[in-house]
Amino acid sequence: MNRIRSLFAALLLPLLLPVQLSRYVFQYRMGRVRAACAAGDRGAISIELALAVVALVAVAAGVVGVLYALAGKVKAKVNDAPIDAPTST
User: Fold this and answer.
1) CA–CA dist 40, 7 (Å, integer)
2) How far apart, in whole angstroms, are the C-alpha atoms of residue 35 and residue 43?
């Protein structure tokens, strides 16, 4: 069981690293938004939120692109693999 846990952690940690980074960036941005609200600076809030939305859309587009590329590779492998027809005896 310990081997499975360590293997799972070794495989999952690199995948969760971008999620952790984005969480810290989001917390930083929200802190700036709260500070701008307290200072009464409304223009900076809208610009920062617009930039955050653009970054989020870019990340989503990257994920869709990666999934589309993986789907193309799998489709090519499926098309290349011959299917043995069942024989009736």
Assistant:
1) 50
2) 13
Crossing angle for the helix pair 2-39 and 42-80, nearest 10 degrees?
150
Q: Do residues 11 and 23 lie in contact, with contact meaning Cβ atoms separated by under 8 Å?
A: no
Beta carbons of 45 and 37 less than 8 angstroms apart = yes
pLDDT tens, 19-63?
A: 777 788 888 888 887 887 787 766 667 787 888 889 889 999 999
Domain boundaries, the chain: 2-77
**CA 47 to chain centroid:** 23
Tokens 């069942």, located at residue: 86
Count of beta carbons in the 10 Å neighbourhood of residue 19: 8
